[in-house]
C-alpha cells in the first residue's frame, strides 16, 4: 500500500497536479490486538446446562445469540455476571450502535471488552490463530479509522481537527465534486471543518484552474486497512 500511494503521489507531482487534486487517505475501521490463547469468553463454559442457548449466529468481538424458546431473559441473566462481556436483549442495545431495529440482529446481543473474543468453541477458535480484530465498541480509540487529506480544498499546516464520522466522508466528496448527494446519515457541516473555505466554491481562493479540476471530478480516494494506527484526523 505504501508503494501504491507513493506511485500516485509521484505521478501527481510529475503532471503538476499536486496543488490541483484533492487526496483523501482513510480506512473503514480501526484495529486492536487479540489473544486467542488467553482472552476468550467461552459461552459453552458459562452455560453448562445447555438449556438456554440454541445457537450463536456469529462470534468474535460481538455475538448474536438465539435463545431457546421463551428463554431470552434467562439467557441474559445467566451471562450477566461474566467478566469482559456485555449482554442484553435486542431492544436494550445502545442507540449509538444503530443495531436494535435491524432484522438481522438476534433476540440477545453480546459484545466483549476490547481485545476479548466471544466463542462457543474455545478449541476451534484457538486453532485459528490471528492477532488483530475490529468490531469492538465504536467509542474505543482503537476502533477509530484514520483520515488524512491534502489538496486545494483542505486546510493546511498539518492541523489536527475535531473528529468526523465515517458517514460524513460521502457528503464531503459530493460537496467537493459539486454533485448532489443521495439521502445519507452523514453530516456535511461536521466535515466542513476540514476545509479551508466552507463556501460553495471551494477553489475560489486558490485559482480558477483548481475550480475546473473540481468540476471534472479529479478527486482520489484510497482505502487502506489500518495496520499502522493513526488515531487523529490529520490534514496534511
Automatic annotation (TrEMBL):
It comes from the Eukaryota. The keyword Transmembrane helix applies. The chain crosses the membrane at residues 216-235. InterPro entries: Alkaline_phosphatase_core_sf (IPR017850), Phosphodiest/P_Trfase (IPR002591). One of its GO terms (molecular function) is hydrolase activity. Keywords: Membrane, Transmembrane, Transmembrane helix. This is Uncharacterized protein. It comes from Biomphalaria glabrata.
Amino acid at each position: 500500500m505504501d508503494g501504491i500511494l507513493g506511485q500516485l503521489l509521484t505521478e501527481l507531482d510529475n503532471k503538476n497536479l499536486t496543488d490541483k487534486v484533492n487526496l483523501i487517505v482513510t480506512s473503514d475501521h480501526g484495529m486492536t490486538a487479540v489473544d486467542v490463547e488467553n482472552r476468550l469468553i467461552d459461552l459453552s463454559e458459562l452455560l453448562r446446562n445447555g438449556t438456554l442457548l440454541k445457537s450463536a449466529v456469529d462470534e468474535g468481538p460481538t455475538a448474536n445469540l438465539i435463545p431457546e424458546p421463551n428463554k431470552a431473559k434467562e439467557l441474559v441473566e445467566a451471562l450477566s455476571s461474566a467478566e469482559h462481556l456485555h449482554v442484553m436483549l435486542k431492544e436494550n442495545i445502545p442507540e449509538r450502535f444503530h443495531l436494535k431495529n435491524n432484522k438481522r440482529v438476534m433476540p440477545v446481543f453480546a459484545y466483549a471488552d476490547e481485545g476479548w473474543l466471544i466463542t462457543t468453541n474455545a478449541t476451534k477458535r484457538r486453532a485459528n490463530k490471528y492477532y488483530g480484530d475490529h468490531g469492538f465498541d465504536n467509542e474505543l480509540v482503537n476502533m477509530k479509522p484514520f483520515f488524512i487529506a491534502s489538496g486545494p480544498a483542505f486546510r493546511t499546516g498539518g492541523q489536527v481537527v475535531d473528529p468526523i464520522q465515517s458517514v460524513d466522508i460521502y457528503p464531503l466528496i459530493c460537496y467537493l465534486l459539486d454533485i448532489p448527494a443521495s439521502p445519507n446519515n452523514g453530516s456535511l457541516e461536521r466535515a466542513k471543518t476540514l476545509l479551508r473555505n466552507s463556501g460553495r466554491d471551494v477553489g475560489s481562493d486558490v485559482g480558477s484552474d483548481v475550480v475546473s479540476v473540481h468540476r471534472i471530478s479529479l478527486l482520489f480516494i484510497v482505502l487502506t486497512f489500518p495496520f499502522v494506527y493513526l488515531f487523529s484526523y490529520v490534514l496534511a
